[in-house]
Amino acid sequence: MTRLMTIVALAALALATVSGCSFSVDGDEAVSHQFGADYFGAGGIVNLTDTVEGDAFVAGGHVSIASEVSGDLVVAGGELSIGGGVGDDLYAAGGNVKVDAIVQGNARIAGGDVAVGPATVIAGATTLTGGRISFDGNSHGYLQASGASVNLNGQVLGDAEVRSEDLVIGPETQINGRLIYHGPTEPVVPKGAVISGGVEFHEAKAGRFTHAPVEPFRRTVHWVGSVLWFVGVFVAATLFLMLFPGFASRAADAIGRDPLRSIGLGLAILVCVPFVTVILLITIIGIPLALLVIPLYLLLLFLGWVTTALFVGQRGLAMLRPARPVTLGPRLLSLFAALVALWAARHVPFIGGLIGFVALIAGIGALVWQAWSGREQTAPVAG
C-alpha cells in the first residue's frame, strides 16, 4: 500500500523534471530554469545574480536578488533581500523583506518585517503591508502602508496613506502630497520633515488593522467551515497514519533531518508541476495525462500539510515521552494537538499565511524526498 504513496510523490517529481523543469535536490541547491526570456527559481537558498531579459519568479527559504530583471519580479520566501533593478513591477512577500532596488514600475510588498532602504527608487506607486514597516526610500507615485507599526523617513512625490497603530515620522521625511493617517492618535511631525499637503488624521481604534470586522453571519459560516475542515483533515491524517505508518513517520522525520531540502524541493514541486500541467493541456494529446496529474497533485498538496502536522506531533511526543515506546493512541493525540497548533499558527496576523505556506511546502518536499530515497525498495513496508 505504501507503493501508492510512492507513486504519487514520484509522479510529481517526474513531472517536475519534464519539459526542461529539471533540478537538483541535494543540500541547499536551487531549482532554476529559463523559459524563453523568463526565469523561474526555487530552493532553500536562492541567489539570482544573472540578468533576466523577461520576468523572474523566485521562491525560497533565503532569497537574494542582485541582478537586473527587465520585466516583473515576483519573489516569495522566508528571508528576502532584493537589490539590483526591476524593469517593470515588483511583487514580494516573505517573513523578512529588505528592498534596496531601482523599480521602474509599481511595488507591492508584504511581510512580517518590511524594510525599504534609502537606495530604493520606485517610479510608480508603492504598497506595503506587514507587521513592522520601515520606509526610507523614494516613491514617485503614492505610498500606501498598513501594519502594526510604520516608520517613515523617505520621500514620496504623491500622497502617503498610512494605517497603523503606531506611526513614527522621521526628520528626513518628505511628502509632496498629503499624509493621510488612520490610527489611534494624531501623528507627531518632527522638525526637518516636510509634508507639503498637510496631515489628514482619521481616528481608528487600536487593533483595527490586525482584525478586520466580519459580519456575524460570515463569522458563523467561517467558523463552521473551519471546524468541518479541521475534522476532515484529522480523519484523513488518521487514515494516512494507520494505513502507512512507516512511510508517514519516515516522511515526517525527513523534515527534521534537512528542513531546507524539504522546503526547496516542496517549492520546486509547487512551481513546476502546475506549469507542466498547463503545457500538457495545451498540447491536446497530453490532456489525458493532465487530467490524471491534477488529482494526484491535489492529493500531494493535502498530504504535505498532514506530513508537517505529523512532524510537529512526533517532535512534541518525543519531548514529552522521551525513550518510551509510542503506541497508536498517543500518536493520534499528538497529531490532533499538532493540527490545532498549525491551525492556530495560520491565524497569526501578518505571518500566519507564511507559516502555513512553509508548512505546506516542507511537507510536500519531505514526502517526495522519502519516496525518492526509497525508490529502489521492491517491497516497501506498510508499517
**How many distinct folded domains?**
2
Main sheet: which strands, in order across?
1-2-3-5-7-9-11-13-15-17-19
Q: What's the number of helices?
A: 7
**Helical residues, percent:** 40-55%
| Rg over alpha carbons | 23 Å
Based on Cα principal axes, name the global outline.
Answer: globular
Largest sheet: 11 strands, mixed
Order of SSEs:
HEEEEEEEEEEEEEEEEEEEHHHHHH
Distance separating the two termini: 10 Å
Strand content: 25-35%
Structural notes for this entry:
The protein has 7 helices and 19 strands. The strands form 2 sheets. It has an 11-stranded mixed β-sheet, with helices on one face. The protein has helices at residues 2-16, 216-243, 245-257, 259-282, 287-320, 328-346, 352-373, and strands at residues 30-35, 38-48, 56-65, 68-69, 73-82, 85-86, 90-99, 102-103, 107-116, 121-122, 126-135, 138-139, 143-152, 155-156, 160-169, 174-175, 179-183, 194-195, 199-203. Strand 1 and strand 2 form a beta hairpin. It has 2 domains: 28-203, no CATH class; 216-373, no CATH class. Residues 4-8, 13-29, 210-218 and 376-383 have low confidence and may be disordered. Helix 1 (2-16) packs across helix 5 (287-320) and helix 6 (328-346) packs across helix 7 (352-373). With 383 residues, it is α/β, with parallel strands linked by helices.
